[in-house]
Structure formats: structure tokens, C-alpha cells
Write a structure and sequence with these properties.
- The complex is a heterodimer.
- The radius of gyration of chain A is 23 Å and the shape is globular.
- Chain A has 2 domains: 190 residues, Rossmann fold; 78 residues, CBS domain Like (Alpha-Beta Complex).
- In chain A, 37% of the residues lie in helices and 22% in strands.
- Chain A is of the alpha/beta class.
- Chain B is mainly alpha-helical.
- Helix content of chain B is 82%, strand content 2%.
- In chain B, the strands form 2 sheets. Chain B has a two-stranded antiparallel sheet with strand order 1-2. In chain B, strands 3-4 form a two-stranded antiparallel ribbon.
- In chain B, α4 packs antiparallel against α17 and α15 packs antiparallel against α16.
- Chain B starts with a helix and ends with a helix.
- The C terminus of chain B is likely disordered.
- The chains are: A alpha/beta, B mainly alpha.
- Chains A and B meet through α4, β6 and α5 of A and α11 and α12 of B.
- The structure holds adenosine-5'-diphosphate (ADP) and magnesium ion.
- The site of magnesium ion has 3 residues of chain A, from α3.
Chain lengths: 354, 672
């Protein structure tokens, strides 16, 4: 199996009559002007993406920029005007409706902005719904549903109706439902946008906790840049239907592709996206040496060390309060460098106005 | 801008001139025709008529005798449909009224007597309790007891049996058609105009063909009822399915639902509250048809009302009319409560509520069986004994007589004044217009309100009426309808506006209007006939009563809907209450008010056909006569003529409502 779960190749979606004709007339690449003057809505233009196995891929953009349309093209809820989609190397668009049904039943999951709970079913029935659709017998599916309900922390409320739950709880049901079939590719379309800011943060933490144990491949839509940088392994930024840049949060802030992205990232505190690895002084021969047993290097007297992948903001206080440089370890607990309080301070000051 | 105002001014003058010319023409047409020796100007000559009636009659005859769809003869098809409806109907009727019987005439063997009246009352009361609470149980219990006590039981059970059959048929067929419209765009395009037509065609128009196809009898009546009551269900189904949140639909698809699963496990359950509104509509419309259906063979309460109206038996008519109202109110409340209840069921879901339902069921079964068993020994249980019955007939007759004796002069003065000062001048005016000028004016009006397409259509439809020799009947219809609508609007719109501005009054008016709307149209006729006897005036009052509701409701809704921000803006810029009303509320509510007038016209037209019973000489009378003579061609042509008037009026008014709406939304933009 390839490293990519889903590949989008030159995906287009134009709303309005005569979209495919316009497409042919312009040899597969109509310009924005020609689309607009034909009275069409350019919801997605020439999207090329690769979603890697196990990553959280965030699609970010202002409302109306085409995020929902793109994600619906990926799941073929919307038929793209043009383009190819490869799911685990198989051509998604040539699948029959029966194959699509089977794929959706077993491999895809989706969480919706407004929850899309079925109001006439209890929490338990809602979560078990995808399993019921597959024809799983009642006892088995309720067993499974009870497990996921527990996973999202709603145990005890199995018999409630959606109307009896708060917004945050409703979205937990939505999440539990989409997880019930153990999907391999998980789409979330602005799952937390309809929630209050405080609840939203709590749900993001919850989401990260879930993902740490589940390790799904995730396509996450949001219009909130803070949310994007908190969750994303990689971010795609969309504008007017086109994907402007695909990068890690840190790259996005450091090397914005154009003014639009720069404007977006201007007020993002650098320490929130910058990893320790990118400001530390690397150990020249760090490969293969273990921090704990490294003779030549003074271990921080407080016994303090930090992960190379940590965000500066998360560990800044400890480093600044430490007199000595703090050792940096990679994910195999090997020493890869040191970070000094001055390096952290430089980064923090850089973000301040002159 | 100045240019536009000039145009508008010019237009106004033009229309004023046209109106004046029409007035003059209408007044002088007779003498003019005599002077010119051109009688054809005022009366469309018989020689120019196109004989569509006999053509249609022949066609229907052919349908019945010779037509076939492949190997199946058309008459076999109709017989098949009749059979499907007849079987459950006979079963329910036997259960409720005649007992389960096999064999015909004197060979008939009764296997099971009908259900005891007590058991029915207990059953509906228990249903009321199940659906909501003790109060509803009491309400429906008392309503059904009323039917027994006042001697309406047997008729009421016949009527109930036909409702019990018509409603599920209407709901199921409506649901399936609605689903078809939702799923297939072509089906929607096919059915939508048909539904439009069905809602503007008065029932009478299709009574005649049904009568011819299915014969006189309860089955024909049921078919007419189903056809009449179904369209709202179709529309509501398509509308509520479309109204399902797109995310919910997507959820269904993403969980891998097949299209069947998507429909029945996601869309229909989610759309259920809307669908229940449709079910309630079907029930109410079926009840509305009770009296009309008795013209083609339904028995029961409707038949009783019809007979007493024909024989001018005042007391009996009122008594039966009240019985229909009682039944209508009981069924309306019960169905509404049931539809709200099914939501509540789920909230209380759990093991306990299931067994808690059993006592009620046991109670019903117990009274049912006891009624049957004890009925053999105690006849009073089987049939409500006549010596316990009370009749209010005498009371009503006495009341009407008292009113007529004591207030005859006053009533007569009112009637004569309104007739001579208001109604007759309008009648003379409309009937006096020479038909060529009439055609021209209709076309011009349609052009002015809705463009050339409608102008052309209006012209064609009017020509249809003309060449069938129905011009004068159509003008009389127009006159009665117009007069009634004007009065209904003069009463209804101010009432609606007041109700919107005054909360307590609003609540009272809402209750009043809701009640008016649950009453079958025929019921309005009874008291009016009692007081004013037959004639145009009586018809007008009955139509006004029936058609008042939408005028009030839409005006109220329109005024209430005006955005509070706009009102506040008015207050801040110093408007007083009167200015607020005249400058902000009314203009903004005008599209709604126009829609209300439109609805009023539609109701008035449908009611007009009913008032034919009290001797108006218009298209309604034409249909009615055709019905009694089973003259298919005549009935269909006259029915179509009424429908055409309705269509023209509907299109013109909806177009101007749309325009008013556009004007106010555009007006907001340009003033910025
Ligand atoms: N069904 C549709 N028909 C026509 N235009 C649509 C439809 N759905 C979305 N659009 C348009 O496509 C654009 C992208 O919409 P969407 O994908 O919903 O954006 P986002 O999710 O980023 O807010 C918008 O301009 C929207 O108006
Ligand atoms: Mg969106």
C-alpha cells in the first residue's frame, strides 16, 4: 500500500449550468475570469492533494472558499466537474454505486458541522445507526456502540434524545457515530465551528486525545487558524476554490507562499508554531547517542529536557527559567541538541512590534 | 426616476379611461346593440357555439364502453379500483354500523352485530388519553356522546367509516406521489401543474366524471374524497423531504445507506413532523367533503344535511350540521394530539411505558367484547335507545322562527339595502359589458399584471368559456365571487391588522379563525338560509363566512412579520402610530395581504359551487344541474370554466404579489 491514503489530481467543481462545456472549451483549465463571466461559481479549482496515512490534514480557508465542496468531492458526496481521486490507489470516480456504498460503510467516516443527528433516535440508536444500515444484528451493534459512546465520554446518556443534549455533547455523539464503523479515512467538516469557544477548546483536546490512540487518517476542515495550527500535521490553505499552499504550520508562518497567506499568519504568535528543533543548536554527532548516557555533555542540573517536536510556546517558561541550556531529545529519546533561553527569547521578541 | 414616475402617472390615467369606457359601454350596450341591430354584441349567438359538451360526453361514453389499456378494458380498471376501495370500506362499515354480514338482501346473515356505541365512545376517549391527557379524553368522549344523545349515531358512524377509509388511502397515495416528486425532477414537472390545477378546480368539476365512471354510491364518494383530500399530502411530502437538512441527507449517504434506506430510515423519519401536518390536512379535507360526497352516494351525516337543506327542514339541518362540526373538531384535535404525541413517546422510551399502555388497550377490548356479549341481552347497549335521545330540532326551528318573526323587517332592510346599493349595480355592470370588450379587458389586465404569456392564456381560457355559451354564467360567477371577496376583505383585513397589533385580540382571533377553518364549507350555508332564505344575498353571506379566514390570517401574519428593526427605525424617525401603520407596516405586509386575497378568492370560488344549492344562477348552478342529470359534458365544461376563472385570478394576483415583494426589497436598496 502506498503512503498516501487519498490523492486528488486536478479536481474541479464548478456550480451552475454548462460547467462541463466551459471546461471543454478551455481545454481543461478555465481561468477564474472566464468562469465568473460564464456565471458559474468556482467552488473548487485545480485541487492537487495527497493525504498521507495517519496524518491530520487540515483544510483552512475563509467561509465560501470551497472547503466543504472539496471534502465532499473527496467522498463523492458531490461529483467533481473534473479530476481524478485515488483512494488507496484505486480510482474512486470509476467505482460503481454499490462499491461506493461498501466503501462508505467500512472505510469512510464523516462528522458534520451541525451534527446531523437523527432527532427521532436515541444516542445509542444514533451511534449504532451506521451499523444498523450494514445489517449488523442488534446486540452486536449496541455492544459496539456502547464502546464508542464510552470512548467519547457519554456513557450514562445512551437513552437520551439528541434534543436533550448540549451542543458539545451532540457533537460527541456525531463523532462516536462516525467512529463506530472504525473508518480508515475520517472527514470532519468544521466539527467544532458551531460550538462556544470554551467548549471548542475542550473538544479539540478531546479530539487530539482520541487521535493519539486511534491513529486515523484525518481530513479536518476549519476556518479557524488557531484550530488549524493546534491540530494539523499539515495545512492546506484555500482561497476562491484554489489551494494556495500546503505546508506544516511552521513553514506556513515562516515561508508564506503569498501575501494572502502572510496576512493570515501575521498575528499568529511564532512560538505557537515553531518547534524546538528549529531553534536549537544541534549536536554535531548526535546520531546514535542517548541523552541519559552521554558522557561529554552536562545534563541540565534540574534534570530538565524537552522534545524536539514540542512547540516553543509549550516549553518556553521552563527553558527561560533554567540557567543552563536544556537538552533536546528526539522521539527515540536520543539527544539531538540544546536549546538556550536566549534562543527562546529571540523568537519571542521577534514577534513583538518594533 | 422622473421618467418612471411619468410613466406610472400615464398608466394610471390610461386605466382610469379604460374603466370609464367600460362603465359607459356596460350601461349603453343594450341600447347600442338595438340601435346597431347587433344583438350578438351583448349575447354570444348560439350559432357560433362550439359543441364541446356532447363531444366530451361521447368521449366518456367511449371510455366506459370501448376503451382499453392493452388487454385490460378501461371499465375493468375502474371496477378494479372500486373493488380495492370497497373491501376495506365494507369491513369498517360493518364493524361500526351495519354489522358483519354475508349474503345479499333477504339472504343476508349477520355474523357479528356492529360495535356497541358505548365501546366506540370508550375507545375514542381512551385514544384521547393515550394521545394527550384526560382533558382530550373528555373532549372526544363528550363529542361522541353528543352524537349518540342527539340521535346522530348511525349517520355519524357511516361518515366515520368513510373517513377511516379515505384518510389512509389519501395519505399513502399522497406520500408515494410526493416521494416520486422528490426523487424525479421530471415527475415533479409533470405533477406540479396538475396539483395547481386540482387545488383551483372546484370539487364539483370532477364529481361528474367520477359519477359517470364509478356509478352512484359510497365508492364514488370515497374516490372523490380521496382525490380532493390528497393534493396537500403530495405537496407536504415533497416539501418536507426537500426541507430535510442537506447534512442529514449526506449523513445517510456517508453511512452507506442504499437509496431505499436513505428514504425510509433517514428522510421520512426526519421529515415526520411536516408529514403529520399533511395527515391532519387530509383528515380535515375529507371531513370537508362529507356533504358534497353525499351528492354522489355517500350516506351518513352529509346525506342528512343535504336532504334537510333541499327540503328546507331548518331544525334537522342545523342539528346534523352541528353533528358534523362536533365530529370534525373531535377528529382534528385527536389527530393533532396524536402527531405531537409520537414525539413524546420516544422521550419516555424505556421498558416501563410499554406495559403502562396495556391497561388502556385492555379497557377498550373489554368494553368491546362486553358490548357484543351483553348486547344480546341488553339491546340498549347495541343501539342507543331512541327514548334516551334528545332532539334540538324543535329548538332551532323555534329560534329561527322567533328571529324571523321579530326581526323580519330589520333583516329584510339590511338585505334589500346591500342588494340594491351594492350587489345589483355590480351585477348589472358586469353583465352589461359586451363580451368582445370583456375579452379585451381581461387580456389587458393579464398583460398589465403578469406579462404577455398570461395575457395569451387568459384570452384562450376566456374564449373557451365564451364559445361554450357560458359567458353570462361566468359573469354572474365573477359578480358573486367579487362581491363576496370585497366584503370578506373589508371585514377580514382590518381585523387581521388589529389582531396583529393587539396581542390578546390576536389570540382570540386565532382561535376563532382556527375554528372557522375546521368547519366543512357546507355548514356555513345552513344558518344563512334559515335567516335569509335562498338567493344571491344568502350565497354571498355564506361565501364571506367561509372565505374570511385567509384574509384575516394572512393580514395578521404579514403585519406581525414586519421586522422589528424597521419599526424601531420608524419610531426613531418620529412616526406616530398611524404613520407607522400606513407607511411601514402596511406597505411591507402588502405581499402577504395580496396572497391572503388570493386565497380568499380561491375559497370563494370553491364555495360558490356549493351555493348553487340555494339557487344562484351561475356556473355553480350549471355544474349542479349537470350532476343531477349525470350530464358529463355539461358538468366538465362548466367545471373547467370555474377552474379557468380561478386560474386567471390566481396567476394575476400571485404575479402582483411577487411584484410588490420585489418592489419593497428593491426599494430598500435604491434608497441607500
Ligand atoms: N449547491 C451549490 N450550488 C451552487 N453554489 C454552491 C453550492 N454549494 C456551495 N456553493 C458555492 O460554492 C462556494 C464554496 O462553498 P463551500 O464549499 O460551502 O465553502 P466553505 O465550506 O469553504 O464555506 C461558495 O461560493 C458557495 O456559495
Ligand atoms: Mg463549509
Amino acid at each position: 500500500m502506498s503512503q498516501n491514503k487519498l490523492i486528488c489530481q486536478d479536481v474541479w467543481k464548478l456550480y451552475g449550468r454548462g460547467a462541463s462545456r466551459l471546461f471543454r472549451d478551455h481545454a481543461g483549465a478555465p481561468s477564474l475570469d472566464s468562469i465568473l463571466s460564464a456565471g458559474l461559481t468556482p467552488a473548487v479549482r485545480a485541487a492537487n492533494l495527497e493525504i498521507r496515512v495517519g496524518e491530520i490534514f487540515v483544510i483552512m480557508g475563509l467561509s465560501g472558499s470551497g472547503k466543504s465542496t472539496l471534502v465532499r468531492c473527496m467522498s463523492r458526496l458531490i461529483e467533481p466537474t473534473h479530476g481524478a481521486l485515488l483512494f488507496e490507489g484505486r480510482d474512486l470516480r470509476s467505482m460503481s454505486s454499490r462499491e461506493m456504498i461498501s466503501l462508505r460503510r467500512h472505510k469512510l467516516g464523516m462528522v458534520f458541522q451541525h451534527f446531523a443527528l437523527l432527532p427521532h433516535l436515541s444516542v445509542m440508536q444514533n451511534v449504532a445507526f451506521p451499523l444498523a444500515v450494514q445489517g449488523m444484528d442488534r446486540q452486536q451493534r449496541e455492544q459496539r456502540a456502547a464502546d464508542v459512546i464510552k470512548l467519547v465520554g457519554l456513557d450514562g446518556r445512551e437513552q437520551y434524545l439528541p434534543a436533550q443534549l448540549s451542543g458539545g455533547q451532540q457533537q460527541r455523539v456525531g463523532i462516536a457515530r462516525s467512529l463506530a464503523v472504525e473508518p480508515e479515512l475520517w472527514f470532519l467538516d468544521e466539527p467544532f465551528s458551531a460550538l462556544d469557544p470554551l467548549i471548542r477548546r475542550e473538544m479539540q483536546d478531546e479530539f487530539l486525545r482520541l487521535q493519539a490512540s486511534l491513529q486515523k487518517t484525518i481530513v479536518f476542515i476549519t476556518h479557524d487558524f488557531d484550530e488549524a495550527i493546534r491540530l494539523a500535521d499539515r495545512i492546506a490553505i484555500m482561497k476562491d476554490g484554489a489551494i494556495i499552499q500546503v505546508a506544516t504550520p511552521e513553514e506556513l508562518v515562516k515561508r508564506p507562499a503569498d501575501d494572502y497567506v502572510r496576512e493570515f499568519t501575521r498575528y499568529i504568535p511564532r512560538e505557537k508554531v515553531t518547534t524546538i528543533a528549529s531553534i536549537m543548536s544541534a549536536v554535531a554527532d548526535a546520531e546514535g547517542t542517548s541523552g541519559a548516557s552521554l558522557p561529554g555533555v552536562a545534563v541540565n542540573t534540574n534534570g530538565l529536557f524537552v522534545d524536539a517536536s514540542s512547540k516553543v510556546a509549550d516549553v518556553a517558561r521552563a527553558i527561560i527559567e533554567s540557567e543552563q541550556p536544556v537538552p533536546v531529545l528526539n522521539d527515540r529519546q536520543q539527544l539531538v541538541g540544546h536549546v538556550h533561553r536566549q534562543q527562546v527569547l529571540d523568537l519571542l521578541i521577534e514577534g513583538l512590534p518594533e | 426616476m422622473i421618467h418612471g414616475r411619468l410613466d406610472a402617472g400615464l398608466y394610471r390615467w390610461l386605466w382610469l379611461c379604460l374603466l370609464l369606457i367600460t362603465l359607459v359601454l356596460s350601461n349603453t350596450s343594450r341600447s347600442m346593440a338595438r340601435a346597431l341591430d347587433a344583438r350578438w354584441l351583448i349575447k354570444y349567438p348560439g350559432a357560433w357555439r362550439v359543441d364541446m359538451k356532447s363531444g366530451i360526453s361521447r368521449f366518456m361514453q367511449w371510455l366506459i364502453d370501448d376503451a382499453s389499456l392493452g388487454p385490460v378494458a378501461f371499465s375493468q380498471l375502474t371496477r378494479g379500483i372500486a373493488w380495492i376501495i370497497e373491501q376495506p370500506y365494507q369491513l369498517v362499515l360493518g364493524f361500526l354500523s351495519s354489522g358483519l354480514v354475508t349474503g345479499q338482501g333477504s339472504n343476508a346473515v349477520q355474523h357479528l352485530p356492529p360495535v356497541s356505541w358505548l365501546a366506540v365512545i370508550v375507545a375514542v376517549a381512551v385514544l384521547g388519553h393515550y394521545a394527550r391527557n384526560l382533558w382530550l379524553a373528555l373532549l372526544v368522549g363528550v363529542a361522541f356522546s353528543y352524537l349518540a344523545v342527539f340521535g346522530q349515531w348511525d349517520s355519524a358512524m357511516v361518515t366515520l367509516a368513510s373517513i377511516i377509509i379515505a384518510v389512509p388511502f389519501g395519505v399513502i397515495v399522497g406520500l408515494l406521489l410526493g416521494i416520486g416528486m422528490y426523487r424525479h425532477a421530471w415527475f415533479d414537472r409533470l405533477l406540479s401543474p396538475l396539483l395547481d390545477l386540482m387545488q383551483t378546480i372546484p370539487v364539483f368539476a370532477y364529481l361528474v366524471p367520477i359519477l359517470v365512471l364509478f356509478g352512484f354510491g359510497p365508492v364514488s364518494a370515497l374516490i372523490a374524497t380521496i382525490i380532493y383530500a390528497m393534493p396537500p399530502m403530495v405537496r407536504v411530502t415533497a416539501l418536507s423531504l426537500r426541507g430535510v437538512d442537506p447534512e442529514t441527507r449526506e449523513l445517510g449517504i456517508m453511512t452507506g445507506c442504499t437509496s431505499h434506506q436513505l428514504l425510509w430510515r433517514v428522510l421520512i423519519p426526519v421529515a415526520r413532523p411536516g408529514l403529520m401536518v399533511g395527515v391532519n390536512q387530509v383528515i380535515m379535507l375529507s371531513l370537508n367533503m362529507v356533504i358534497i360526497a353525499s351528492m354522489i352516494g355517500a350516506g351518513g351525516l352529509g346525506y342528512d344535511v343535504l336532504t334537510s337543506l333541499r327540503q328546507l327542514k331548518i331544525g334537522l339541518g342545523i342539528e346534523t350540521g352541528v353533528a358534523i362540526v362536533v365530529l370534525a373538531v373531535a377528529l382534528d384535535r385527536l389527530s393533532q394530539a396524536l402527531s405531537e404525541r409520537s414525539d413524546a413517546v420516544l422521550i419516555g422510551r424505556g421498558g416501563r411505558s410499554l406495559w403502562r399502555q396495556y391497561p388502556r388497550l385492555t379497557l377498550v377490548l373489554l368494553t368491546l367484547v362486553c358490548g357484543w356479549l351483553l348486547g344480546y341481552g341488553i339491546p340498549a347497549l347495541r343501539d342507543y335507545p331512541p327514548q334516551w335521545q334528545v332532539s334540538t330540532g324543535l329548538f332551532w326551528e323555534e329560534l329561527v322562527r322567533t328571529i324571523n318573526v321579530n326581526y323580519f323587517d330589520e333583516l329584510e332592510v339590511i338585505k334589500t339595502h346591500i342588494l340594491t346599493l351594492f350587489m345589483l349595480p355590480i351585477k348589472r355592470f358586469l353583465l352589461g359589458i359586451p363580451w368582445p370588450w370583456g375579452l379585451l379587458m381581461i387580456t389587458l389586465l393579464a398583460l398589465r399584471f403578469a406579462g404577455w404569456r398570461l395575457a395569451l392564456m387568459s384570452l384562450l381560457l376566456s374564449v373557451f368559456i365564451l364559445v361554450n355559451g357560458l359567458w353570462e354564467d361566468a359573469m354572474t360567477t365573477l359578480y358573486l365571487c367579487g362581491v363576496s371577496v370585497i366584503i370578506a376583505c373589508l371585514l377580514g383585513i382590518p381585523l387581521g391588522i388589529f389582531a396583529a397589533l393587539n396581542k390578546p385580540l390576536g389570540r382570540a382571533v386565532s382561535v376563532f379563525i382556527d375554528t372557522l377553518q375546521t368547519l366543512p364549507s357546507f355548514v356555513y350555508l345552513i344558518p344563512v338560509v334559515m335567516l335569509f332564505r335562498v338567493g344571491d344575498f344568502t350565497a354571498m353571506i355564506a361565501v364571506v363566512l367561509y372565505a374570511l379566514a385567509p384574509a384575516v390570517r394572512y393580514a395578521m401574519y404579514g403585519v406581525q412579520r414586519v421586522e422589528p428593526q424597521l419599526i424601531e427605525a420608524g419610531i426613531v424617525s418620529g412616526c406616530n402610530a398611524w404613520q407607522l401603520l400606513m407607511r411601514i407596516r402596511l406597505p411591507l405586509a402588502s405581499p402577504q395581504i395580496l396572497l391572503g386575497i388570493n386565497q380568499t378568492i380561491m375559497l370563494a370560488l370553491s364555495m360558490l359551487v356549493i351555493t348553487a344549492l340555494v339557487g344562484t344562477r351561475d356556473l355553480g348552478q350549471e355544474v349542479y344541474v349537470a350532476l343531477t342529470k349525470a350530464d358529463t359534458g355539461r358538468g366538465i365544461v362548466a367545471g373547467l370554466s370555474v377552474a379557468f376563472i380561478a386560474i386567471i385570478a390566481d396567476r394575476m394576483i400571485s404575479a402582483s404579489a411577487r411584484r410588490a415583494q420585489r418592489r419593497y426589497s428593491l426599494g430598500g436598496d435604491s434608497s441607500r
